TrEMBL record:
Classification via PROSITE patterns: ABC_TRANSPORTER_1 (PS00211), ABC_TRANSPORTER_2 (PS50893)
Organism of origin: Lachnoanaerobaculum umeaense
CDD domains registered for this protein in UniProt: ABCF_EF-3
Protein name per Swiss-Prot or TrEMBL: Lsa family ABC-F type ribosomal protection protein
An annotated Gene Ontology molecular function: ATP hydrolysis activity
Amino acid sequence: MSVIKIENLTFSYYGYVNPIFEEVTFYFDTNWKTGLIGRNGIGKSTLFRLLLGEEEYQGEISKSVEFIKFPPDISDTSKTVIELFKELTKDVGEWRLLRELNLLDIDESLIYREFETLSKGEQTKILLAILFTNEKDFLLIDEPTNHLDIEGRKIVSEYLKSKKGFLLISHDRDFLDGCINHVISINRSSIDVQAGNFTSWYQNKMMRDSFEITQNERLKKDIKRLREASKQSKSWSDKIEKTKKGVKISGVKPDKGYIGHQSAKMMKKSKNLENRQNKAIEAKQKLLKDIDTKESLLINCLQHHKDTLISVSNLSAYYGEKQILSNLSFEINQGDILAIYGKNGSGKSTLIKILSGLNNNYSGEIKLASNLKISYIPQNTSDLHGSLVKYIKNKEADETLCKTILRKLDFSRELFEMDMQNYSDGQKKKVLLSISLSKPAHLFIWDEPLNYIDVISRIQIEEIIKESKPTLVFVEHDGRFVEDVANKIIYL
């Protein structure tokens, strides 16, 4: 057993108004399978960099293990897997790598392939296998699910469950439930550590938040009452002061000889009362919790006069010389929430782009209802740079509505003024989501909309879909999200 202690940790990025961490203290055990949970941009990846010694900080981090990050930095992706294994490990026998690959259901022959020729999912599994051969090291695993399909996520979750300990950032609830036994949650003003998986942590959070919201409301009422009493005390004090100076108040003619002594006593009493009330207000304000509330989102759905929005007949498509879609026929009707399922490389994104009008390289027939308005979210966020406001205008979206949705998704106001290239991947994805949700549309088409999006925001998106019942076609590997919202599935 080895304990990692973080004591009085304080860190801020240059130019940021508020620190990311301020005098934070907590600990966790290297035998724990720990999930690190928190909103996008709240400091999860920053904590990894601090543990790895990549940033300067105040405070102390005590450890007796070496931290290793996933994904590792790879100098040359043209090297074979076995060459990378020797580069990333320290005198580890190849048999260990073969054992790990077997646990991850990876063909051993891939170790002789060049790394860059492998699929993203294969790369993820192989890198995890390589890093876990260093049994004395402690892995910091940053979002391993982003390139894994649903089946791949199940395999990797089972694999991690078999390991001794790690610290894991992931936003996939089923994935977390399958492999962790502790949670570290980074909140706005604190860090909590508790035993259990994601589901037990979230249930506890909901109960705690409900209690603290009730407490906050009571404290706010107390503060309001004290402020009103303080104003009355100040008014009383001012009147006494004027009377002492010989000013006629409410028809009372002052007697300076008598009032001079009395007013000084009353003035002191009034000031003491006012000071006590102000101290009580200050004390109660310190008790107010900065609770991470989950606000309802907005979506701009339009109703079409036709029930069938898209009709697809005998659709086939190729990727290079490989046929990936073959004679697909289906309809998308109003109210359908259609999930497109399939392994990586099965043609999900190709189908999404064809339905969105972004890929015309297919055979078969696609009929769209007249004047159909489509709101599309791409996988890629690489074009997000420069001004947020200009980007929203270029996409012909409503700026006020977009910003309102972003604020509900825990976007801080200072992000509105930053260059988008400095956003985290999750924050970039939220920009795309806010634009799609704010644009009036009959049909929403989303290609992996939840990549990099934090857990709480995922739940918010689920809730607005279930409440508003838009017509939606999407690709997503978050199994719980699919189960919760889809009423129709296409398996490729």
